[in-house]
Amino acid sequence: MSGPFSDVSRTIFADKEVLSEGYQPETILEREAEIELYRNAFKDVLFGHPPPNVFIYGKTGVGKTAVTRYILDALQEEVDGRPEADDLTVLWHNCNGETPYSTARAFINDLKPAAEDPFPRRGYSLPEALERFYDLLDRRGGTFLLVLDEIDHLKESDTLLYELPRARANDHVDDAQLGVVGISNNYAFRESLSPKVKDTLMEREISFAPYSADELRTILEHRASMAFRDDGYDPSAIGLCAALAARDTGNARQALDLLLNAGDIAEERGDDAVTDEHVSDAEERVRRGRVLKHVRDQTIHAQLVLETVARLQEDGHAPVRSKTIYDAYTTIAEEWGHDPLSSLKSVQNHLSDLHMLGFLTRHEHNDGRAGGSYYTYEVEHDAAAIVDVRERIEDDRP
Ligand SMILES: Nc1ncnc2c1ncn2[C@@H]1O[C@H](COP(=O)(O)OP(=O)(O)OP(=O)(O)O)[C@@H](O)[C@H]1O
């Protein structure tokens, strides 16, 4: 029997997984200098010396996590292969939305015997949680590396970041040694720490620069050779993905995502190979996807106000004053079946918020005594994309 999927076959991809977000690369390219710094920082661990605290800084998608995983996996493998080396335990924790207490709790739960209940979410103080954690460290012994990813998201981090690296010096642990690896894409975080924490935590610093187009091309070529079938891509398409991502932010995640989308488009169209045209169309698709997400995150009236400005702009009326926007907004809201806000002031508040969020550009006008001062608005980026995503949002409504 034939069904909707019965004639689906892979035409372009050999192993699509290697372009996905979750894929952990076995080969790290173009980061030799950073790997060397990491190697120097941690080589003493093989001989039972305490690890330094290391702070990793770089913008999003520049390989901080991939390189850290690669180096710590390699260190673990080396330690495991040397009977004379102390045991090594690496604990990873993402600090997004976390507190010092929840972080200590996560580490305790990683180390506690399986039969024991998880450490309570509340009811203990941070010093009590840390005491339990230190006790577990000492029981297991050896070297511990605590990786705090997105460390800048850790609320009230000073206490914990002061405490952990000093655990041994302050006699909280006897048989264990520990080092902290902090990863951040917010350089301002460094400045927000108290000097005593900064000095300890940033004992070693490794900064990751954005990738150049050439570096991204090397990374993408390697990934593409695994992801696509032989002759499944045009080398110039790889160069275009690299150039577009380098021109934007130098982010490898973005470059890989573009290539993945280009492959999807080529496959959807039944083409044999990924070309420049697929990459350009993928860029447009990714950009629209981003706009869709940002617009969807706004309240319905903010969306309607934004849509109104976009529609007026499409009709050649922008930059446009708030009174005109208000009148058109009322009609558009009603057409979609929403009760419009009844005051000009509330629409002006939305306009001001949308300007602050970067959706709208605002121009100030001063017509002297007669006209007074007022603002006009226009859509910052792509009016057509906003109208399009608004239609999709309304079409998706139950
Ligand atoms: N040098 C590299 N070699 C191979 N793949 C890489 C390299 N750098 C980055 N990547 C790939 O790019 C993607 C993003 O990298 P990664 O997650 O390490 O970035 P990050 O700097 O940790 O970003 P964030 O700050 O957003 O967490 C991953 O899929 C990773 O596999």
In short:
The chain is α/β, with parallel strands linked by helices and 398 residues long.
What does this structure look like?
- The strands form two sheets. A five-stranded parallel beta sheet has the order 2-3-4-1-5, with helices on both faces. A three-stranded antiparallel beta sheet has the order 6-8-7.
- It has three domains: 31-208, P-loop containing nucleotide triphosphate hydrolases (Rossmann fold, 3-Layer(aba) Sandwich); 211-294, Helicase, Ruva Protein, domain 3, CATH 1.10.8; 298-396, Winged helix-like DNA-binding domain superfamily/Winged helix DNA-binding domain (Arc Repressor Mutant, subunit A).
- The model has no long low-confidence stretch (mean pLDDT 92).
- It starts with 31 loop residues before the first helix and ends with a helix.
- The protein has 16 helices and eight strands.
- The chain has 398 residues and is α/β, with parallel strands linked by helices.
- It has helices at 32-42, 64-80, 100-111, 126-140, 158-163, 188-192, 195-201, 213-227, 235-248, 252-268, 276-296, 300-314, 322-335, 344-356, 368-371, 383-396, and strands at 54-58, 88-94, 142-149, 176-184, 204-208, 320-321, 360-366, 373-379.
- The longest helix is centred in the last third of the chain and has 21 residues, at 276-296.
- The site of adenosine-5'-triphosphate has 18 residues, from helix 2 and helix 10.
